[in-house]
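Sharing in case it's useful to others searching the archive later.

Someone asked me privately for the predicted structure of Amidase, so I'm posting the question and my answer publicly. Question first, with the sequence:
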Amino acid sequence: MTETDPLVMRSAREQLRGLQAREFSARELLDAHLRRLERLNPTVNAVVSMDPDAAFRAADEVDAARAAGSALGPLAGLPMSIKDTHATADLRTTYGSTLFEHNVPTADDEIVARLRAAGVVILGKTNVPEFAAGSHTFNPVFGTTRNPYDLTRSAGGSSGGAAVALALGFQPLADGSDMGGSLRNPASFCNVVGLRPTPGRVPDPAAGLPYFPLSVMGPMARTVADVGLMLSVIAGPHPADPLALGEDPSSLADVVPADLRGLRVAWAPTLGGRIPVESEVSHVLDEAVAVFGAHGAHVEDACPDVDGADVVFRTLRAAEFDHAWGDVVDRQPDAVKADIAWNVEQGRKLTGREVTRALAEMTRLRRAADRFFDDYDVLMSPAAQLPPFDANLLWPNEVAGTTMTNYLDWMASCYLITALGVPAMSVPAGFTPDGLPVGLQVVTRARSEARLMGIAAAFEERTGHGRRTPPLLEIP
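And my answer, the predicted structure tokens:
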């Protein structure tokens, strides 16, 4: 068996079928993933704070329950490390900050509790930027996560450790969160699939500002079908989240590739001239979108109304940062990175009128997006405006000749879509001449994740870009 074709690179669904057929045990599956992780994680720094002993105990419990014929959860026996911004009971959760370097929560966040209830075997945590701020994964506790397709490049963020863990076969599923692209950007950079759901699809009962619906939690995987499987577990109503959607999420696991014939595709390669995009990304995405036309879809240049989306995102993000970390910056100004302190300062400059205007504009944009999807079934645009950049940079200084003045500028391809309140997914779309991954951002009407996944699965089926594994796996 070659390094690119072992048990750990099977999809989550294939691993579950192997467990159910007694082809291997949960302990054996965990051991296979752990051996892969121990060999390659020191090179990429994707998984942190591991507790193998607790993981093997959990795997043994799954095996014992299966042997006894007991009912098991839909993900029973799958090993997984959890994003280090999501609290895990009895397992260190640092948020990438020295302020929480020794923090061991006593309870799980809701997304973690749902994964445990589904039978997931938790092994460790996946690395993040400090407080998940920014789309480049580095922090003062654990350092930088490296891209598995080129170790000199960024893995993206904030779910960067999660994306790398998927790409290298450390786990078959990963959890993440997304305010300005933190599920979509690392998926694009690491050639995996990341879904930002509709706000409220995955409940967050611990959210401090639930009526500022910028940040969401969501799934990542190596295939669209596996994303649907995980979404069906973590989605669903919760009485403590006022925005939680009430629909039964179980049907989301049934991902069926869409018929592309007659599909109305809006292609917005620069979001209507609003974002710079590197030519090597544009070339890959032009070819990717042509796949839809070749299979009967009607593709035309069109972009939803995103005028004002930049102000909406930056205003509400800054207000949230001040709410979350303003007191920390006051007490210990040197304990957070400069970009966080800057974003907090932006929040403090806001007036109440500016915040309410941003909320009103977000409402207008969401209504306009709903009307846009009366005319188009799907919107396609870049998931990232450039290929993975030098990992030694704090953030890219320039994109396609345009200077980036702060750590948010280069993320606009994702955060302008965030303001529309719609589900958006990055799906592998091809590679630059240097072998760096490029993701296609696929977007649909609010609450239409099933439709979105069906369209993305059809593209995945016809291209197979996600099956190309990192060259790191070929090194003995």
